[in-house]
Amino acid sequence: MKPQPASVRIAAGQGFWGDWLEAPYRQVTGGPIDYLMMDYLAEVTMSILQKQKSRDPSLGYAKDFIPLMERILPIAAQRGIKITANAGGVNPPACAQAVAETARRLRLGGKVRIGVVTGDDLLGRLDGLLARGHELRNLDTGRPLSEVRDRVVSANAYLGAWPVVEALRGGADIVVTGRVTDTGLTLAPMIHTFGWRPDAWDLLAAGTVAGHTIECGAQCSGGNCLVDWDGIPDLANVGYPIVEAAADGTFEITKHPGTGGRISVAGVKEQLVYEMGNPAEYITPDGIADFTTIQLEQRGKDRVRVSGVRGRPATDKLKVSIGYFYGYKAVGTLVYAWPDAYRKAQAADRILRQRLANLGLKFEAVLTEFVGADATHGPLARAGAPLDQLPEVQLRIGVRSPDKAAVERFTREIAPLILNGPPSVTGFAGGRPKPEEIVAYWPALIYKRMVEPCVEVVQV
Amino acid sequence: MRKKATRRARRVRLLDIAHARSGDKGDTANVGLIALKPEYYPILVKHVTAARVARHFKGMISGPVERFELPNLHALNFLLHGALDGGGTISLKTDAQGKVFSTALLRLELEPPK
Q: Cβ separation of A379 and B25 shorter than 8 Å?
């Protein structure tokens, strides 16, 4: 039996699909790590990918993942760095195949094993589930899914760490998954390294907190940090976070030497409360983490120790992320200059709304914001600002409707204001806004026994 | 006039004693409010109640405000329901994901002690 390692180093490479392309490369080259973890999937990403797959069955995954693998696979293979990523989207097998082709092209044939985690995609099973009495009620509104069933475009259960662990145990060097939780991608290497048991709730909770801390990439290493924001060094070369975990569930957050940014207790706290609900019960498929038990300690420059995390048993349900077609929206903008910038923008808004009404157009919502005055802090900002002296204001109007024609017509009512509305207006170089399809998010729960994760490990 | 100025000076703005980060879950924005020093945490607990925050955001949110305590992090977590015009992809707001509710909360001024 191999001796158990004393620690494992898991590095965050992507906090979302579209995050900094340099980060994963810098993580595998900037110093020693054991795992590279990359989170690609936001709530609405799955429906975008499902749409791509319906047009071409070989698509439906994060395509950026492939050129990234081309760049870092040789280094990862040479250094023995394993990769966990939910880049598979709604088509993990196709993603894995594209990675395999890349690996072969790089002459890594025989040297790389790819794990594929599927089973999260419930789209094809929805009618069966509904027929058997699984109502998939909206967690926020309580409405049953049957009300929007004919408009559903994607449905994915959130799988946890265990299928990823199974792939790692099967010898996978790269694990490509569909809708696995962000935290599961970090927890899995810890479970695999230390042999944690499925009922070791405190340890699983600790690994989940580790995952939450680094799942948004640099947001815990100096990015988007409010405390001393202009004193945080060299964000141009910001180091993405690395978890150094021990078998007892304690871990330290750090980053590679020589990188920018900062790992501080204040910054880690900000990330811990990010997108937080009830902190005493952070529910994942793997267990419940109690964030009110977390202890933080600055252990040196750019090094924060996390300990004390307590957990509770997992529930018998999984969250399901469902995307459904909702309607259309469009947003148009114009910029008004001093003097009276704010009043001109307000006048333009009134004129535009009157024209929309005269046309008899019906919208579910029309929202006006005055960027430079109130777009971020609303009435709180207006209360204290010298609004009559603003040097410029961007008028930003959005509409939403089930009627595409109404939204389309709205997009043609912006530009005329340049010549037939209030003066000193500009900023229309981008052209007419485009009506956008809205795919809305429908969160629901399903019993775990209804979902069967599937794990495959293939040799390249 | 002068009396008013002294009274204003005694007011404490949350920006001076706390930092924050906010995000979204559907149509709900969350704001984590963190004391800049441990000794400020009891002030937050006492004065920054769910009702006070609901009053602060009046006209900006359509639902209730919930508050949770994290004494270990010297932090409070607020859930602002109905804050995001439907949230996510539905929302027409610039801040559809509630990213800047954090600093909007830091504008709050605590009542001076009587």
A: no
Judge contact between A218 and A268, C-beta under 8 A. no
Residue-wise pLDDT for A143-181, tens only, equals 999 999 999 999 999 999 999 999 999 999 999 999 999
| pTM, to two decimals | 0.96
φ, ψ for residue A20, nearest 5 deg: -55, 125
Rounded to a whole number of angstroms, the distance from the CA of B113 to the nearest CA of chain A is 23
Residues of B in contact with A364 (CB under 8 A): none
Q: What is the pLDDT of residue A381?
A: 92
Strands A82-85 and A174-177, how do they pair?
A: parallel
Q: Point out the domain boundary residue: A289, A315, A341.
A: A315
Question: Do residues A236 and A261 share a domain?
Answer: yes
Name the amino acid, one letter, at A382: R
Partner-chain contact B89 A226, CB within 8 Å = no
Residue A432 lies in a domain: yes
| Residue B9 predicted with pLDDT over 80 | no
Q: What is the band of B113 on the pLDDT scale with cuts at 50, 70, 90? A: low
Domain membership of residue B64 (yes or no) is: yes
Is residue B5 situated within a structural domain? no
For A410, phi and psi rounded to 5 degrees? -55, -40
The interface residues of chain B toward chain A in range 26-85, judged by CB-CB distance below 8 A, are 26-28, 30, 32, 34, 36, 56-57, 59-60, 68-75, 77, 79, 85
Residue B79 and residue A396: Cβ atoms within 8 Å? no
Q: How many domains does chain A have?
A: 2
ipTM of the complex: 0.95
Indicate whether B86 belongs to any domain.
yes
Domain that holds residue B42: 22-110
The parent domain of residue A240 ranges over: 7-120+158-315
What H or E segment, with its residue span, contains residue A417?
A: helix A416-420
Tell me if A114 is assigned to some domain: yes
What is the torsional sign of CA A336, A341, A346, A348?
negative
Measure the CA dihedral A286/A287/A290/A293, to 10°: -80
For residues A225-238, give the mean pLDDT.
Answer: 98
B6 assigned to some structural domain? no
Q: Which of A137, A273, A324 to substitute to test the interface with B, most B CBs within 10 Å?
A: A273
Cross-chain residue pair A140–B89, CB shorter than 8 Å: no
Q: What is the pLDDT of residues A19-30, one digit of tens each?
A: 999 999 999 999
B21–A271 CB contact, under 8 Å: yes
CB-defined contacts A:B, below 8 A:
128
Say whether A378 and B21 touch across the interface (CB within 8 A). Answer: no
